[in-house]
Structure formats: C-alpha cells, structure tokens
C-alpha cells in the first residue's frame, strides 16, 4: 500500500466505503462503473490511464471478510470480480522456463491447477496462512489457453491430467465447479450484491 494512502487512512479513518464502482474483468482489466453501468449490470469502462492502473494495482487488498478492495486514499472501494481476484498471463522466460505474472505485474507461483466446467483454467498459489481459504486463486487469461494446452496432458475424461510447470514439478489438473470457487478460496465475488442482501435482511 502506498505511503500516501496510509497517511490518508490515519488522518481520515472513518470515511464510508463504496461498492459497485470498480470491477476486475476476466482479462485482468480494471473497469470503472458509473451509475448507469450499475443499473444496467454493465461491466463498465476499462481504465486506460497507465498511472491510475498502477495506483489501483498497488493498493489492491483483501479484507478479513473475503472482500477485495482498492484503498483510494481514505476510502475503501470494493471490487466486483467477474471471476477470481487475480488474473494471470502465461509466458516463457528467456531461459525457456514457464512463468506466470498476475494482472498487477507480480510473479505468481502456482501450487495447484484447476479446470472448471467451462474450460477455464485456474491456478492456486500456496496459502499464506494455515487457512486454505486464504490461498490466492487466479484465472488464466483466455488468450493463453493455447499456450497452456501445449504444456498440459489431459486424461481420457477430459477433466484431469497434468500440467508440466517445471522440469521437476508437474502439477495435477483437478476439476472444479465454477460456482464453488468463491467459497473454496474464501472470497466475495460481488460486494455490491452482498451489501444489498445485508440491507434487505436488516
């Protein structure tokens, strides 16, 4: 988190949060959603400004309740997730080894690979704590599915197999239901819908 953001939080600790205004799409793009987008359920406008993209990425965090947010100065802006909290690209390094990079520009080291019923590929990193629900999970950008298939071997059932990640580190492919992913990895896909549901109950 940027120092200027930490200073703003210390100075104005009780600024109300907002939800519905920012979305992470399935290709790792930040999208701004105005009131019309929210009313229509539209994905919003991609953020093209390089510095703003970088600022959002540096201040992207997970709350204890599983909601992901962008800390915009003193205000917490909850992020709508098209699928997972992270999106990764697959490429070859100069030495020929495969590498994954997340949508914020950081390396992503997978510990497990999943395929859902729609053919989407997800990578899970090692859990940062003893709670497996806190493991980082990332969707593979759809442009990299062909590259992935060149390094994967599917079994006859089409749902299991092996991903050849490193020379000494093959990862088994595991089937997962798309609807189970948020609960399995401990994140809230739509803070906006969660907030509406809580207001309706209250």
TrEMBL record:
Pfam families: DUF2944. This is DUF2946 family protein. The lineage of its organism: Bacteria, Pseudomonadati, Pseudomonadota, Betaproteobacteria, Burkholderiales.
């Amino acid at each position: 988190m940027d120092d200027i953001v930490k200073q703003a939080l210390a100075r104005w600790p009780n600024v109300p949060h907002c939800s519905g205004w920012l979305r992470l799409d399935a290709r790792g793009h930040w999208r701004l959603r105005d009131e019309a987008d929210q009313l229509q359920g539209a994905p919003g406008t991609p953020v093209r400004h390089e510095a703003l993209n970088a600022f959002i990425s540096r201040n992207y965090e997970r709350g204890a309740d599983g909601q992901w947010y962008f800390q915009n100065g003193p205000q917490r802006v909850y992020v709508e997730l098209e699928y997972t909290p992270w999106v990764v690209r697959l490429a070859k390094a100069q030495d020929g080894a495969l590498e994954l990079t997340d949508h914020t520009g950081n390396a992503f080291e997978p510990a497990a690979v999943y395929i859902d019923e729609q053919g989407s590929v997800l990578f899970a990193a090692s859990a940062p704590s003893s709670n497996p629900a806190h493991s980082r999970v990332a969707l593979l950008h759809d442009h990299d599915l062909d590259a992935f298939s060149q390094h994967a071997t599917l079994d006859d059932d089409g749902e299991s197999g092996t991903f050849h990640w490193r020379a000494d580190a093959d990862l088994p492919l595991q089937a997962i239901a798309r609807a189970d992913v948020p609960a399995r990895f401990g994140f809230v896909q739509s803070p906006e819908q969660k907030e509406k549901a809580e207001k309706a109950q209250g």
